[in-house]
Amino acid sequence: MIRLGQATISLERREAFLDGRPLRVGGRAFEILSVLMQADGRIVSKDELINQVWPDIVVEENNLQVQISSLRKLLGEKEIIQTVPRRGYRLLKDHEPNLPLFNPLASAPIVAQPPPVDAQSVPVFIVDDEACVRTALSRLLRAEGIEHRIFQSAEELLDADIANGPACLLLDVSLPEATGLQLQAALNQRGLPWPVIFMTGHGTIPMSVQAMKAGAVEFLTKPFNDDELLGILRNTRQHAATAYDQWQRVQHVRQLAAQLTPREREVLPLIVGGLSNKQIANQLGTSEVTAKVHRKHIMAKMQTRSLVNLVELYGLISAAPSPGPSSLS
């Protein structure tokens, strides 16, 4: 399949589609289109077209003009077949081979924006190697109706079957093997927006500074007051819900961007950079018609009609680091 203007063409099958719908194209029109495409951007004279399309018939030039006009309507772009005064016609080089049968605008799935997170539904993951601490914290959270899970090591949490949903952590710094700081770093590598409340019996200033720089929201020294902890958890769970909403939005935009073709991914930063269709065409060495088509497909696949919104979406995925495999090393 080959895209020309707004249509997709199969010369072999002599078929044409617009937004996935078949179009009726006459045999003469297909012959003219085939000649122009094989010319690969060269100007084809009117006599050459007439001789190839009507080899054994004497026809008036008006017949050729009618067929050219019908082709322009078919392709949805008048400029795609250029009339060169006193010389003939030229098909602008904006076709792209090996496209899917249906137009991307018709076949691209609708990616739904996920719903916002309720802070009251955010679970708390407790990670502490002391059984008495885990038990006391679990009892406190159960009494408050707060969903939670307990782990005795960093390794146990990372090995657990936990969905990439919202959460916050009550994390002991001094775990027996991998430390709390190492677990925090591993979770950051995964790209999960889980705020961390550190707990320690003998914290140091450098340790607390390191934790805060890595994104910890609080650093508590044991033993701590239950009411103080519950107040911190209330704020942290709200923070976790907000952070997860933002994280979900980034993932949503990445899903949209994943639908773009390699060429469209090349065009996207040029569009958000403020370049016109003509400037994009000059930079990529293609036609202005092609640049216009790329712009239209990108806007549709990114589910936006506003250039301002497209710039915002592009900024989201450009600024957010891509998640990678987590490691406790």
UniProtKB/TrEMBL annotation:
<feature type="domain" description="OmpR/PhoB-type">
    <location>
        <begin position="1"/>
        <end position="93"/>
    </location>
</feature>
<protein>
    <submittedName>
        <fullName>LuxR family transcriptional regulator</fullName>
    </submittedName>
</protein>
<feature type="DNA-binding region" description="OmpR/PhoB-type">
    <location>
        <begin position="1"/>
        <end position="93"/>
    </location>
</feature>
<dbReference type="GO" id="GO:0003677">
    <property type="term" value="F:DNA binding"/>
</dbReference>
<keyword id="KW-0805">Transcription regulation</keyword>
<dbReference type="InterPro" id="IPR016032">
    <property type="entry name" value="Sig_transdc_resp-reg_C-effctor"/>
</dbReference>
<dbReference type="InterPro" id="IPR000792">
    <property type="entry name" value="Tscrpt_reg_LuxR_C"/>
</dbReference>
<dbReference type="Pfam" id="PF00486">
    <property type="entry name" value="Trans_reg_C"/>
</dbReference>
<dbReference type="InterPro" id="IPR001867">
    <property type="entry name" value="OmpR/PhoB-type_DNA-bd"/>
</dbReference>
<dbReference type="Pfam" id="PF00196">
    <property type="entry name" value="GerE"/>
</dbReference>
<dbReference type="GO" id="GO:0006355">
    <property type="term" value="P:regulation of DNA-templated transcription"/>
</dbReference>
<feature type="modified residue" description="4-aspartylphosphate">
    <location>
        <position position="172"/>
    </location>
</feature>
<keyword id="KW-0238">DNA-binding</keyword>
<keyword id="KW-0597">Phosphoprotein</keyword>
<dbReference type="InterPro" id="IPR036388">
    <property type="entry name" value="WH-like_DNA-bd_sf"/>
</dbReference>
<dbReference type="InterPro" id="IPR001789">
    <property type="entry name" value="Sig_transdc_resp-reg_receiver"/>
</dbReference>
<feature type="domain" description="HTH luxR-type">
    <location>
        <begin position="253"/>
        <end position="318"/>
    </location>
</feature>
<feature type="domain" description="Response regulatory">
    <location>
        <begin position="123"/>
        <end position="237"/>
    </location>
</feature>
<keyword id="KW-0804">Transcription</keyword>
<dbReference type="Pfam" id="PF00072">
    <property type="entry name" value="Response_reg"/>
</dbReference>
<dbReference type="GO" id="GO:0000160">
    <property type="term" value="P:phosphorelay signal transduction system"/>
</dbReference>
<dbReference type="InterPro" id="IPR011006">
    <property type="entry name" value="CheY-like_superfamily"/>
</dbReference>
